[in-house]
Known about the structure:
homodimer, alpha+beta, Glutaredoxin, Glutathione S-transferase Yfyf (Class Pi), Chain A, domain 2, 2 domains, four-stranded mixed β-sheet
Amino acid sequence: MTPTITAFARSPDRGRGLARDMRVRWALEEVGQPYDVRLVSFAEMKAPAHLARHPFGQIPTYEEGDLVLFESGAIVLHVAETRPGLLPDDAKARACAITWMFSALNTVEPPIIDREMAKLTERDKSWHTERLPILEDRVRVRLGELSGRLGNADWLDAAFSAGDLLMVSVLRRLGGSSLLEEFPNLRAYVARGEARPAYQRAFNDQLAVFTASQPGA
Amino acid sequence: MTPTITAFARSPDRGRGLARDMRVRWALEEVGQPYDVRLVSFAEMKAPAHLARHPFGQIPTYEEGDLVLFESGAIVLHVAETRPGLLPDDAKARACAITWMFSALNTVEPPIIDREMAKLTERDKSWHTERLPILEDRVRVRLGELSGRLGNADWLDAAFSAGDLLMVSVLRRLGGSSLLEEFPNLRAYVARGEARPAYQRAFNDQLAVFTASQPGA
C-alpha cells in the first residue's frame, strides 16, 4: 500500500527543503518506498479534517491504510522500523541510531529554532541585537559538542542512519549563517547528507511543489 | 543485568522531579526493572569520561552491559521496547504511542522550555515583561490543541503509554504557573500520571537524592 504524506501547498521556505515533509520524503526515498503527497493550505491545516490527523495542525502527516501518524520524527522512525535501510540490524546499534534521532530533535534543533524564530519574529524589537548573540552562543555550544563527537567520521555511527538523516536536516536550518562554517567537519557532514541520491530526489520533489505554485512558473 | 542511569548529584530543581532522569526512573518503575543510579556533579558531566557516554554532557545516561544510551526520550523508548508495559502490542497502536513521545518532546516541550529559560535567564532584561506574554501565548496554543485532542479521555490513546509518560513529564514543567490551570482536562491528566504508583516511587527516589545532599538533612 502506497503511503500518503501531507506537505505545504505553498512552501514558506520557498522550496529550500526546510519544511518537515522533507525529512519524511528523504526517509521514504532512502528505503525506496514510493509515496503520494497531498498538499494542504494553511487554512486546511487548521480545519477539522486535518486536525483529526494532526492535533497540532501541522505538516507532515503519514497515512497508510488506517494508520495515521504525525510528527516527522515519529514518521521517520516508523519508516525506518518497517523497511530496511535506515537502521542497523543489530539491536544495540539500532538503539544508538535512535538515540541520535532524539538528539537531533530534542537537543540540537531547539536552540536552532529559537535563533530562527528570533530572526523571523523579533527583528524589529529593541532587544534583538542584544539577544541574538546569546541565542547564537547556545547553538554554538551544541555544534561544538556535536563536532567533537563526529570528529573525522562520515556519520555519527558506523553507517548512515535515520539519526544522521534527522541531524543533517536539523543542521541545514543553519544554512546561510556563518555558524555552521565555524565547524568544517559539520559542514562537510551536511554536504555528505545532501549529496545522497535519496536526498536529491526528495529535495527536487519538494522544490517542484514550490516552483509549480509560483504564478507564471 | 541491572542498568545504571546517571542523575544530578545536586538537583537544580530541588527534587521536584523535573530533571530528566525522572522520566527514565518512571519508565523503569512502570516496567518493574530495578536500576542503579550514579550521581554526577556538574564538573563531572563535562569531563571526558561522561562526554564519552553523553556527547552533550548532560544527564541522564543509560548503561546496560556495553550498551550506552543518552537522551531521555531514546532511553524511555528503549525501556519501552525491551520490556512490556509501556507500549501496546499491536504494531499500529505502538506507532501511535511513539508519535505522542515525539510530540511531547518536539512540539509541546520546546515552547515550555523557552518560557522557563526566559524566566530563568531574562528576568533582569528590559524586554522581559514584553516578551514573556508572547512566550506564554505560544505555550497556550499548544496546550489548547492538546486539550482539544485529549477531551475527556484518561490517556492520549486507549491505555497509558510511554507517550503519556513523556507528555505528563513535559506538562509538569508548567507547575506553579496558571497556564495549566486554564485547561482543567490537562491538569487532571497530569494529576492522573502523578498518581501512578510507579511515578510515586520514581519521584520519591529522586527526591531522596536531593534531601540527602542537603547539609543538615
